[in-house]
Write a structure and sequence with these properties.
InterPro entries: MFS, MFS_dom, MFS_Efflux_Transporters, MFS_trans_sf. With about 400 residues, this protein is an all-alpha fold. It has a single domain (about 5-395), classed as Up-down Bundle (Growth Hormone, Chain: A), CATH 1.20.1250. It contains 17 helices and no strands.
Length: about 400
């Protein structure tokens, strides 16, 4: 494994911790600022929307400098945002800090995905992307539960100070281990935007929004759901998040392995099973053991879609992958924002803390329908990659595998 992949995984670990730790601390933050749980959920929605905006914005700005320098600047922004959250005197200031930190997220994973894929042989690209995302998933096994435990016992502000310190470690790792790759030659905004004319790129991004949104509909409100419905003690949320994180690690690695072999069948299986499990979660949330198993399954099935969806976008956006890759990271977070908002709506409507699971099941089912549509269009044209601006003659001549 190239050491640069390890450095990317370290950065991903810090970003993953700050993205997900807020879910375990929503009750504490809501209580501290005197706001409702659905209002505190805006810290999830706001972060996610910041990723959606920051992903293309920061990536376009980053075309002027080397990828290594851009990754370092992004980690600096991440550190600043988390310190602002930690010191926030009011809810609005904390929300601003979350948004500042989130601006780094999409571009980091988007540029990082391209760098990771470039470091290895073509048949190992999805595996390399999965290796970087392992930092994000391991954050859910180690960083998020620890951050939740610290936040519940020492105060949530301490958690965000420690997350900022993680950012410093990530920045150091990138400075030391990522090779000083030259900036991508001939990257023009018009050329990068051409990838978005390909319907397959747009379909893959829509699958990302809906499929990952399904996961977040359930997980955003996991703390109140497990304490109020399943009957777990507040302290148990930490260990439930560990289970979710373990599921994510396993699902991410399986998704990376099989995406290099059979990408679309991997998506069908993961999205179909995710829809079923989320539907069942409305029932299993009432029993402690079943709830715990379901949380692990949601993490595994949700993250089994990440490497194949990211590789699908890179495959279809021939010759202009950087912006498309970053925008797809934004699409994951657009799904997060949409799901957190919809989950808050059904809770506010008085449907209970398990109602967001139905929202998730619906979103995952919609993603599965789009996956079948994408494959059907691909079979009909039998030339899925030909319409993309920037495709090379070698790419145009390559056989199509179904």
């Amino acid at each position: 494994m190239p050491l640069a992949l390890l450095a990317l995984a370290i950065g991903a670990f810090g970003i993953g911790t700050t993205e997900f730790v807020i879910m375990g601390l929503l009750p504490e933050v809501a209580s501290d600022f005197g706001v409702s749980i659905p209002t505190a959920g805006l810290l999830v929605t706001g972060y996610a929307l910041g990723v959606v905006i920051g992903a293309p914005l920061m990536t376009v700005l980053g075309t002027k400098i080397t990828r290594k320098r851009m990754l370092m600047l992004l980690m600096g922004l991440f550190i600043a945002g988390n310190l602002l959250s930690a010191l926030a005197p009011a809810f609005g200031v904390m929300l601003a800090g979350r948004i500042v930190a989130s601006l780094a997220h999409g571009a980091f994973f988007g540029i990082g995905s391209v760098v990771a894929a470039d470091l290895v042989a073509p048949e190992k690209k999805a595996g390399a992307i999965a290796m970087m995302f392992t930092g994000l998933t391991v954050a859910n096994v180690v960083g998020v539960p620890l951050g939740t435990l610290i936040g519940q016992n020492l105060g949530w502000r301490i958690t965000f100070v420690l997350v900022a310190a993680l950012g410093v470690i990530g920045l150091t790792g990138i400075a030391r281990l990522v090779p000083d790759m030259p900036k991508a030659e001939g990257v023009h905004l018009r050329h990068e935007l051409a990838a978005f004319r390909n319907v397959q790129v747009l379909l893959a991004m829509a699958m990302t929004v809906l499929g990952f949104g399904g996961v977040f509909a359930a997980i955003t409100y996991i703390a109140p759901m497990m304490t109020h419905v399943a009957g777990f003690a507040d302290g148990s949320v930490t260990w439930l998040l560990v289970l979710f994180g373990i599921g994510m690690v396993v699902g991410n690695l399986i998704g990376g392995k099989y995406a290099d072999r059979a990408l679309m069948p991997m998506l069908y299986a993961a999205l179909g099973a995710l829809a079923i499990v989320l539907g069942l979660f409305t029932v299993t949330a009432h029993a402690k053991v079943l709830a715990a198993v379901t949380i692990a399954l949601v993490g595994a099935l949700g993250f089994a879609t990440v490497p194949p969806l990211q590789k699908r976008v890179l495959d279809q956006a021939h010759g202009a992958p950087t912006l498309a890759s970053a925008v797809n990271i934004g699409a994951f977070n657009l799904g997060n924002a949409l799901a957190a908002w919809l989950g808050g709506l059904v809770i506010d409507a008085g449907l209970g803390y398990t109602a967001p699971n139905w929202v998730g099941a619906f979103l995952a089912t919609a993603a599965l329908v789009l996956a079948f549509l994408s494959a059907a269009l691909e079979r009909r044209t039998d030339q899925p990659s030909r319409v993309v601006a920037g495709a090379t003659p070698a790419e145009q001549a390559s056989p199509v595998h179904h």
